[in-house]
Design a protein that fits this description.
8 helices, Glutaredoxin, two-stranded antiparallel ribbon, 4-stranded mixed β-sheet, alpha+beta
């Protein structure tokens, strides 16, 4: 093996090591464990000083859910930011698992998703305040990590009270380009 091939192989290994070191499994590092009682989760969020609860409505066969998990939710920066501000739970829109909703009613995951929040497509990222009120929702996969972080910022800094995410994102893009 000649020196140029060895150097190429080493540089590829370094790139792989750097990129894989910046990712972690979202199942372990992004989502929180839940016993399925969202009233209790609200209290835990209050006790821990969180801004609210984030629910990712998903389904197993969803390619956009998979894309979010493998390209965005696995990023350390995303995990650290969202875990600092929210308790985060997945809900299967086709699931028969019984949960307790924010009102204390026992419902299946699929009824919680469809009947209460009209989730038909996935993923849906639903942000709830500490009283269990839906404050914003985003349907689909974000274009990249930055856009997902902006979505978090939109909720954490209560920009949703002044306007919608599309307008906020446009302003953030202009700021980003100006730098």
């Amino acid at each position: 093996m000649n020196l140029s091939r060895i150097l190429l192989l080493l540089s590829l290994l370094c790139v792989y090591a750097l990129t894989s070191a910046a990712t972690r499994d979202p199942g372990s590092y992004f989502f929180d464990q839940s016993l399925g009682d969202f009233r209790e989760e609200l209290q835990t969020a209050r006790d821990e000083g969180k801004k609210g609860i984030l629910i990712m409505f998903e389904m197993d066969e969803c390619p956009f859910c998979h894309r979010m998990k493998t390209n965005v939710l696995n990023q350390v920066e995303v995990q650290d930011y969202f875990k600092a501000n929210f308790l985060i739970f997945p809900v299967d829109i086709e699931g028969d698992v019984m949960i307790t909703d924010f009102n204390g009613d026992t419902v299946s995951e699929k009824d919680f998703a469809f009947k209460q929040y009209r989730v038909r497509a996935t993923p849906v990222f639903a942000f709830f305040d500490l009283e269990g009120n839906l404050v914003t929702r985003y349907t689909g996969a974000t274009s990249d990590v930055r856009e997902f972080l902006w979505l978090g910022e939109f909720v954490v800094d209560a920009h949703y009270k002044q306007g919608n995410f599309s307008r906020f994102k446009r302003a953030r893009k202009q700021e980003f380009r100006a730098k």
